[in-house]
Specification:
156 residues, UDP N-Acetylglucosamine Acyltransferase, domain 1, five-stranded mixed β-sheet, alpha/beta, Udp N-acetylglucosamine O-acyltransferase, Domain 2
């Protein structure tokens, strides 16, 4: 769309949508089916996961979890992008397990390593949960899962 900016060495997957003035710094990777809202800004070397949706006027220095939806500065994930998952034909039971995994990842009761361990032990694994875990484990910038405000409120 008008005025989007894709800097040097970026990689965009198929069916990516970038609304007006969405901006990618150098070396960003945006995976299949991601949707970047108008005037959103992504720092260099960030990754946006498959089918993630980031609302307009958001900005991040960290990676965006696949299948998540987020908004703000930074765009803290508020849930799964259920609309995209339904449109792509992801089964309801699979979505329910994904949601259980997502809730553990953003829970203030667990750090990311603990959440992943709990997911692996308690939730039936599927290709989408495996992709989320792999995305987190291969991140170089860190994956945005929790608000810094929630950490302050809990005394961390």
């Amino acid at each position: 769309m008008v005025g989007t900016h894709v800097a040097h060495n970026c990689v965009l997957g198929d069916q990516v949508i970038m609304a007006n003035l969405a901006t990618l710094g150098g070396h960003c990777h945006v995976d299949f089916g991601a949707w970047l809202g108008g005037m959103s800004v992504f720092h260099q070397n960030c990754r946006v996961g498959e089918m993630a949706i980031v609302s307009g006027f958001s900005a991040t220095r960290q990676d965006i979890l696949p299948y998540s939806k987020g908004e703000g500065r930074p765009p803290v994930p508020s849930g799964l992008n259920v609309v995209a998952l339904r449109r792509r034909g992801v089964d309801k039971d699979v979505r329910l397990h994904m949601n259980e995994a997502f809730k553990l990842l953003i829970s203030p009761d667990f750090n990311t390593t603990q959440a992943i361990e709990k997911i692996k032990s308690d939730i039936p694994m599927n290709e989408y949960i495996e992709k989320m875990i792999n995305f987190i484990e291969t991140s170089k910038r860190g994956v945005l899962l929790k608000s810094h405000k929630s950490a302050e409120a809990s005394g961390l």
